[in-house]
Amino acid sequence: MARSLFEYLVYDLDMRRIVDFRLKPWADRFLMLRAALYPDPDGGTGNKKHPRLDEAQGMGNEGAP
Question: For residue 27, is pLDDT > 70?
Answer without folding.
Answer: yes
